[in-house]
Recover the amino acids of this structure.
């Protein structure tokens, strides 16, 4: 008996020793003595120093964390095989929706593994396309990308904005289309801006030049609209619109197709706007303010003479299309063209003398055609359950193009004739993947408070519901953004290896209009987390998967979602991938454009909202000695939307409080990248390789 006990002790000691050897030795992150007082509640912030993106000490910390993560990922034996297969799937030609302006067609196309899409132009669709701009030549590593493009309506000029390293900051340049040469001027410190042409120039939005070293973190204030005439020094640009009384507001310019009216959208958050209108045919006429608050959204889709067609949710939570005559703009004279109905009116376009209305019905697209009086003429047939986007066309031309996509339906471009209501396939990509082996179903599950929530589930045909399927659940839940069916190249790798993909249409999004959105904001934010947790519970209950085979992923506001739910239910998930997340809910408004999110989240400067934020903030609710899922945080050093300090402080806290956890807590910090836009193909492939390798390895799956 004694010998048996002794052998058991030896065996246990060996197992314990093995587990300790497998535990990760995290870098020791220094702590500083910083405490904030919120309405009598003292909150420590020991990693405040990680907010300084210019500090050599922070750079050294980033290097040590990246070295640790890379050493972990390098030990995954099938990592290179995953990269090879994702690269193989990715190696196809894709195309953006063509658009026509000034007698020319334009479209983006990416051939194979090019880092950035190339912009082509042609006079006629039968012509051989010519390269207008190739962003792959902008930098050797593909990290300088095109963002906004805008040809002048007379076909003389082409303006474009570029982003360096993923930053939201942009530079605007101009091409003379008759000579093909670039003009000498360059407009800097542009951010969140349109390029709205009027005659030989355009309106744009910019900020004052930030102080050196603060470009990626300082709060963005006092945005202004200027007019730039092509061929002139930007120093002489004319200030058109500003408001010194309200530094935390943004301003975006739009001109009508006939260039008769200038529209200025004023916002103080990511939701709701005021609208100003100016008649450009008479310089003596000042701006007229159409609306007086930020309670509703107004989007001018076009005009017919002096009638503006406006998409709005004014007293219509699911949106409607109205007509406003410039000469009688009082609310009493507004006329409903497409009144509110049970489906959400996602967007509208004026094409070929008709109204093309894109509705969202249970988180998927339905497109209908109306005359200018709002009488239904027809409906555009769609190939399957999915999403229509990118309708491009003009009021005086019946020709248009649109994009259709779904989870297993890569983006196909259709050419549309408004006269006949006929669509024909214009471009279809060819991938090394058999889409016929997969199916998509939509289910409706019940959340904690009884709310019915839709969810899409995608998987290989013949998948058995035995609770053993590796499953990836994705969510967002914020900012009135609808998560509709969409195609992801990298996700095909997950599906072909037996993975199930689920997309939960949780509250906070716009899938069912303003009320659905509002029920996931501020003091209602817990609904978002409850909806997501209930989605996971549904997948487990219906035996799609189990907690040991369930991974969750979300980016930006979705990163916040992932951070919050693993604090609340760490037992429910095996792997968590929070990407570029908002993790510090007490200080998010102090960086770059973060102040604009207060409408969604609330602010720690309000006593009631502080209590709510503090209750779910991912950073402030990490528990000690808790078995969290395996965590891989991703962020980027040039992210000036959600600054990387959110992720830095979060992972430092997680590592400090759970140093002996058997599940890793790592961070992957991409250099020369930002919030996601414009990321080159090579970096995308590397990131998705590491994400899928991390998920599979921690689920015990061998590829």
């Amino acid at each position: 008996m004694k010998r048996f006990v002794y052998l058991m002790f030896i065996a246990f000691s060996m197992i314990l020793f093995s587990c300790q050897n497998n535990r990760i030795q995290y870098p020791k992150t220094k702590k500083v003595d910083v405490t904030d007082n919120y309405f009598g509640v003292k909150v420590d912030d020991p990693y405040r120093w990680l907010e300084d993106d210019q500090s050599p000490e922070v750079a050294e910390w980033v290097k040590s964390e990246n070295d640790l993560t890379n050493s972990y990922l390098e030990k995954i034996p099938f990592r290179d095989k995953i990269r090879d297969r994702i690269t193989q799937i990715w190696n196809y030609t894709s195309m953006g929706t063509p658009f026509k302006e000034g007698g020319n067609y334009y479209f983006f196309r990416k051939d194979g593994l090019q880092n950035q899409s190339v912009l082509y132009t042609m006079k006629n669709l039968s012509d051989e396309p010519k390269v207008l701009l190739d962003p792959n030549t902008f930098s050797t590593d593909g990290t300088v990308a095109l963002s906004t493009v805008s040809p002048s309506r007379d076909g003389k000029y082409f303006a474009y904005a570029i982003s360096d390293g993923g930053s939201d900051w942009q530079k605007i340049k101009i091409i003379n289309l008759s000579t093909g040469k670039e003009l000498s001027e360059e407009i800097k410190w542009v951010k969140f801006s349109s390029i709205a042409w009027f005659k030989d120039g355009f309106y744009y939005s910019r900020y004052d030049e930030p102080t050196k070293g603060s470009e990626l973190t300082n709060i963005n204030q006092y945005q202004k609209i200027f007019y730039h005439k092509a061929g002139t020094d930007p120093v002489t640009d004319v200030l058109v619109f500003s408001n010194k009384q309200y530094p935390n507001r943004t301003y975006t310019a739009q001109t009508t197709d006939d260039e008769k009216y200038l529209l200025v959208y004023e916002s103080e958050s990511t939701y709701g706007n005021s609208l100003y209108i100016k008649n450009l045919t008479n310089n003596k006429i000042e701006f007229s303010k159409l609306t007086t608050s930020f309670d509703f959204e107004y989007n001018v889709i076009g005009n017919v003479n002096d009638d503006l067609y406006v998409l709005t949710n004014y007293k219509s939570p699911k949106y409607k299309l109205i007509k406003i005559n410039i000469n009688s703009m009082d609310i009493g004279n507004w006329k409903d063209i497409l009144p509110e109905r049970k489906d959400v009116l996602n967007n509208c376009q004026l094409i070929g003398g008709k109204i093309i209305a894109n509705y969202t019905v249970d988180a998927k697209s339905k497109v209908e055609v109306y005359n200018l009086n709002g009488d239904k003429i027809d409906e555009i047939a769609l190939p399957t359950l999915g999403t229509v986007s990118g309708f491009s066309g003009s009021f005086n031309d019946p020709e248009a193009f649109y994009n259709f996509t779904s989870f297993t339906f890569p983006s196909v471009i259709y050419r549309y004739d408004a006269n006949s209501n006929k669509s024909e396939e214009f471009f279809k990509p060819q991938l090394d993947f058999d889409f016929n082996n997969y199916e998509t179903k939509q289910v409706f599950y019940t959340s904690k408070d009884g709310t019915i929530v839709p969810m899409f589930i995608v998987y290989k045909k013949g998948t058995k519901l035995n609770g053993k399927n590796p499953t990836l659940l994705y969510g967002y839940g914020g900012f009135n953004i609808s998560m509709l069916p969409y195609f992801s190249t990298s996700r095909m790798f997950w599906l072909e290896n037996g993975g199930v993909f689920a997309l939960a249409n949780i509250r906070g999004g716009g899938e069912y209009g303003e009320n659905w959105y509002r029920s996931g904001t501020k003091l209602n934010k817990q609904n978002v987390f409850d909806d997501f947790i209930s989605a996971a519970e549904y997948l487990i209950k219906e035996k799609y998967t189990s907690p040991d085979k369930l991974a969750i992923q979300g980016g930006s506001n979705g990163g916040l979602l992932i951070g919050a739910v693993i604090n609340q239910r760490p037992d429910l998930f095996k792997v968590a991938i929070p990407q570029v997340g908002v993790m510090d809910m007490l200080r998010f408004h102090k960086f770059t454009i973060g102040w604009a999110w207060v409408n969604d989240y609330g602010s720690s400067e309000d006593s009631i909202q502080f209590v709510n934020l503090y209750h779910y903030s991912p950073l402030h609710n990490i528990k000690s000695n808790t078995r969290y899922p395996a965590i891989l945080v991703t962020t980027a050093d040039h992210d000036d939307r959600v600054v990387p300090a959110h992720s830095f402080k979060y992972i430092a806290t997680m590592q400090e409080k759970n140093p002996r956890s058997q599940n890793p807590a790592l961070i992957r910090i991409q250099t020369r990248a930002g919030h996601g836009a414009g990321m080159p193909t090579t970096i995308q492939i590397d990131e998705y390789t590491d994400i899928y390798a991390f998920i599979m390895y921690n689920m015990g799956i061998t590829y």
About this structure: The first strand starts at residue 35 and ends at 38. Residues 2-22 form the longest helix (21 residues). The chain is about 20% helix and 35% strand.
